[in-house]
Structure formats: C-alpha cells, structure tokens
Amino acid sequence: MLLLSVVGDEREKVAALDAGADDYVEKPFGIEELLARLRAALRRAGPSGDPVLEIGDLVVDVENRTATMAGREVQLTPHEFELLRVLAQNEGKLLTHPTILREVWGPAYGEESHYLHVYVSQLRRKIEADPARPRYLLTAPGAGYRLVNPIAPAS
Asked: What is the pLDDT of residues 75-88, one digit of tens each?
C-alpha cells in the first residue's frame, strides 16, 4: 500500500509504515516520483501468481491461459478461455447471464445472451465427454450457468 499524505511529520510516517503501508509519499510530489514508487511497489509484490484451478479432470491455468481435460490440452479461443476462467474462479456458484457477459465481453454486452449461449455450446463440445449431457458446465434455465466438479462427493 502506498500512502499519500500532506502530513510530513516523521512520527506520522513511522506510524503509517508500522501500520502496514509499504511506502509514504508526502504532498506535494511529482508525477514521475509517484510512478517510480508505484513501479517499485509492483516489483516488490512479485509475479501475480494467478492460480491453477482444478475442477475434477479439468485444469485451468489462469496465468498461462491454458486448459487441460483429463491431461489433454483443450484448444480455446480467447473468449472461450475467459468464459471458462470466470466460471472456474466461481466454481459451484450460479453466475447469471448478465454477470458472465459483463465479465467476459464487457458492459456493452450485458443483454446479448445469444453470444453466451453460442460460447457455452462451443465450450461444452471441448470439455464435456457428452455435450448433450453436461457434467461440468450446467445450465440453470433462465438464470445462468455454473461450473461444477462432477467427481466431488455429494455434500
């Protein structure tokens, strides 16, 4: 966390740093200094470490933007991967059509559910053993979709 303050008192700076701030910038400051401090903070934060999500036999590597099903790589378009990523990061949760559309295509597509239906169908053909009887990518009629682990024990 980078703290910007008009207070230049040393005790205030020490208190802010001890409370968890990573850096303290006193106003007024130049934009170049601020940008340099932000770059330094990002370097210290390290790589994003985006997760590898495992849902049954499906593995979604968010950082490398790859997916495998039962050990075989699944060839996905960018939108298919984004759709799978959003669903995988919300495993088991029902995501509504507008929510998915905003996450994958952006706010302008909030009511364009035909896009979503086409991509879900394409994704099912790629990850489901029997796309007509999906076990991973389930439909909640009139509401949305959820990605589930069909191998997980019932609770």
From this structure: 999 999 999 999 99
